[in-house]
């Protein structure tokens, strides 16, 4: 059971859980407030988030290092979207969540948007940063001084 929970404790699962909460809220407490504007803004956010996620993942794959949380990376990726954010995939996940909330008119669920990055930071980023620091030391420290955790 613990092994199963280990594999379920991944960022996409948390994103799906948060999105599921927003979707359930949209059904239980529907808002028809944003209408077409929410669909357009949400669609743009969704497209941006998906594009950023693919761009960032592609950079990691091309660098031939791991995308999997909890694994020590073989290389420090500082190109592509990693020039602007140390965590562009997680940032993309938050933008995807925002897009879904806007599309679903789940305005009370907007509170989930800042909570999601905090949870991800607590569950994953701190450990990942420790592994990266262990692997790359001063090079990673210099990168952290230049590039913010989120933006």
Automatic annotation (TrEMBL):
One function term, GO molecular function aspect: methyltransferase activity
Alphabetized PANTHER family for the sequence: BLL3993 PROTEIN
InterPro entries named among the record's database cross-references: Metal_cation-efflux_comp (IPR052527), Phopholipid_MeTrfase (IPR007318)
Alphabetical GO biological process terms: methylation
Compartments where located: Endomembrane system
Membrane topology type: Multi-pass membrane protein
Taxonomic classification: Bacteria, Pseudomonadati, Pseudomonadota, Alphaproteobacteria, Rhodobacterales
Protein name: Isoprenylcysteine carboxylmethyltransferase family protein
Spans traversing the lipid bilayer: 12-34, 46-69, 89-116
Keyword Membrane on entry: yes
Keywords for the protein's UniProt record, in alphabetical order: Membrane, Methyltransferase, Transferase, Transmembrane, Transmembrane helix
Pfam families reported for this sequence: PEMT (PF04191)
One Gene Ontology cellular component: endomembrane system
Organism in which the protein naturally occurs: Rhodovulum sulfidophilum
Signal peptide: none
Keyword flag Methyltransferase: yes
């Amino acid at each position: 059971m613990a092994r199963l929970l280990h594999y379920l404790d991944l960022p996409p699962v948390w994103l799906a859980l948060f999105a599921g909460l927003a979707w359930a809220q949209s059904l239980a407490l529907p808002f028809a407030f944003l209408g077409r504007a929410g669909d357009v803004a949400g669609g743009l956010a969704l497209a941006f988030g998906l594009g950023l996620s693919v761009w960032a993942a592609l950079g990691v794959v091309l660098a031939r290092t791991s995308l999997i949380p909890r694994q020590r990376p073989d290389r420090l990726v500082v190109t592509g979207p990693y020039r602007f954010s140390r965590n562009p995939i997680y940032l993309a996940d938050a933008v995807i969540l925002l897009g879904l909330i806007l599309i679903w008119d789940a305005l009370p669920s907007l509170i989930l948007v800042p909570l999601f990055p905090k949870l991800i930071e607590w569950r994953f980023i701190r450990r990942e940063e420790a592994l990266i620091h262990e692997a790359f030391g001063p090079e990673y420290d210099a990168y952290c001084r230049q590039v913010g955790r989120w933006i």
